[in-house]
Amino acid sequence: MQFPEKGLAEADIWLEMEAARKGDVDWRGGRLPGFYVHFANDDVDRIGKMALEKFHATNALGLGAFPSIRKFESEVVDWALSLFHANGGAGSITSGGTESIFIAMKTAREWAKANRPEVTKPKMVISKSAHPAFDKAAKYLGLEVVRIEPRTDFKTDIDALVAAIDEQTIIMVGSAPQFTVGVFDQIDELAEIAASRNIWFHTDACVGGFLAPFAEQNGFPIPPWDFRVKGVKSISADLHKYGFTPKGASIVAFSDAEDSKYQVFDFDNWSRGRYLTHTFAGTRTGANIAASWAVMRFLGNEGYRKIAEQIWQVRDKLIKLIPEIDGLFIYGKPELTVMSYGSKTLDVSDIAAGLSSKGWYTVAPSPNPPAINLGILSLAFGEVVDTYLADLAEVVDELKSGDRSYDRSAIGSYGTQ
Ligand SMILES: Cc1ncc(COP(=O)(O)O)c(C=O)c1O
């Protein structure tokens, strides 16, 4: 397609863009259970959008030019550190979970160069349930990754992991929780093992980082995961997930502010002089930082607790009612708000196709274990969860009776474009 010679009138721009999004999933209608969009309520959404608009032109590469963004970033980072029970510490806002993980792994690698100089082929040992962002970071950073099959309860197989550690191992990781089945790894045990061997330990709380603190305050038992656990050196926690900020915002946090010196890219061999950044990007939008500040300041601790309570009610309903549908069961014991369900008799791809045909954007089931992944990412889903459960029961009935088969090509995708 060639670049059009003439511009388009503003009204026509909006017409064409509205037409283009006719096929987009109805996320506000809650038709997207478990993926892509986190949503608390319309007020939170509006605050984030207004802040994006107000600060759209700012560039966080130039915090001297935009002291507003410096203030917003430093306050959001401080709030996160206090929620994660850091004693001091440091952190940055990145563009998302993948970048936070990348920066944490980069920091760990540089730390190891200084503290484990004998290592020549740095390696990380992680459970297979850890997010692919760790392998992505490892590819860029020249790290080897060893992935260990999880236990039958989906937590880390610590014995197998310890057996895989060798003198080149510089990084261990635990998820809080892991995406899909929704269990936490045994962060306290893993961090202790890491500390005793001078290995960097990272908690991936991209999912749980901004929900677990409030669920805990609400009295729900949350396994240990944050800086209260000795040996946890870094945490990734996504603002754009349960922080409910506009997409493009996550926190990478370090328990020891000293370690953040390994985080920076500091370059002094450029004709323009010194160039120093804390995250991967050069030019970095300040709008997402401003919007994160606005949403967090709007909600405060109290607002997040209230949302956590609302989400928990939906979670409890799903955990109770899904296994009441003939042959369905929930894998493991979800410890936060993401979960996965399977069927004793049916192929989960048929169930996914059935749900898709009823207008639920359902992504391809995960293969191991065969499961439909579900999560209360959005309270828009909470508004229609009863309809979801009724449709799910109907799909199962129809599949069991053999009355219907569903078109599998309607199943959606995740992470494969
Ligand atoms: C546990 C976990 N870690 C990391 C990520 C990566 O986050 P992002 O998609 O924001 O890069 C995700 C995304 O769902 C996740 O669930």
Superfamily (CATH H level) name of the largest domain? Type I PLP-dependent aspartate aminotransferase-like (Major domain)
In percent, how much strand structure appears in the residues?
A: 5-15%
Largest pleated sheet: 7 strands, mixed
Q: pLDDT under 50 segments (min length 5)?
A: none
Tell me the overall shape: globular
| CATH C-level of the largest domain | Alpha Beta
Span between termini: 21 Å
Give, in order, the helices and strands.
HHHEHEHEHEHEHEEEEHEEHEEHH
Counting DSSP H or I runs of 4 or more residues, the number of helices is 12
| Rg (CA only) | 22 Å
Give the beta-strand count: 13
The CATH topology of the largest domain is Aspartate Aminotransferase, domain 2
Short précis:
It comes from Rhizobium aouanii. Keywords: Aminotransferase, Lyase, Pyridoxal phosphate, Transferase. The chain has 417 residues and is of the alpha/beta class.
Report on the structure:
This protein is of the alpha/beta class and 417 residues long. The chain has two domains: 24-42 and 301-406, Alpha-Beta Complex (Aspartate Aminotransferase, domain 1); 46-298, 3-Layer(aba) Sandwich (Aspartate Aminotransferase, domain 2), CATH 3.40.640. Helices cover 38% and strands 15% of the residues. It is built from twelve helices and 13 strands. It has helices at 10-20, 42-54, 67-83, 97-115, 133-141, 158-164, 187-196, 212-217, 287-321, 348-357, 379-383, 385-401; strands at residues 90-94, 123-127, 144-148, 169-175, 200-204, 232-237, 250-254, 265-267, 275-277, 328-330, 338-343, 366-367, 370-375. The chain has a seven-stranded mixed β-sheet, with helices on both faces. Strands 10-11-13-12 form a four-stranded antiparallel β-sheet, with helices on one face. α2 packs antiparallel against α9 (287-321), α3 packs parallel to α9 (287-321) and α4 crosses α5 (133-141). The longest helix is centred in the last third of the chain and has 35 residues, at 287-321. It binds pyridoxal-5'-phosphate. The site of pyridoxal-5'-phosphate has 13 residues, from α4.
